[in-house]
Amino acid sequence: MLPGEVVVIDYTNWRGERRHRRIIPQYRGLVFWQSDHHPGTQWLLSAVDCEDNKIKQFAMKGIHSWEPEMSNG
């Protein structure tokens, strides 16, 4: 995967809501840290959420699967 490529994750968020998300992982975006939504130190992935174009933290333990988005071209 190259920087800036979209991947689709099957993800359960901090509220227990599971759905597919389209994200663009950030270069050097994997950190062992905590956040307001992810208390307790853990692996977090910084990525652009394609739904609202904002950088968010995704808990690695919440990612069930990860696939590159296939282009139609």
Structural notes for this entry:
The chain has 73 residues and is mainly β. It has one domain. The chain has no helices and five strands. It has a five-stranded antiparallel beta sheet, with no helix packed on it. The mean pLDDT is 91.
Topology:
Blueprint: E1 7-12, E2 18-33, E3 42-49, E4 54-59, E5 63-68
Antiparallel strand pairs: 1-2, 1-5, 2-3, 3-4
Short description:
The protein is an all-beta fold and 73 residues long. The chain has strands at residues 7-12, 18-33, 42-49, 54-59, 63-68. It has one domain (7-68).
Key structural traits:
single chain; 73 residues; mainly beta; 5-stranded antiparallel beta sheet; 5 strands
Structural class: mainly beta
The H-and-E topology, N to C, reads as EEEEE
| Cα shape | globular
Largest sheet: 5 strands, antiparallel
Major sheet: order of its strands? 4-3-2-1-5
Determine the number of helices (DSSP H or I, runs of at least 4 residues). 0
Number of strands: 5
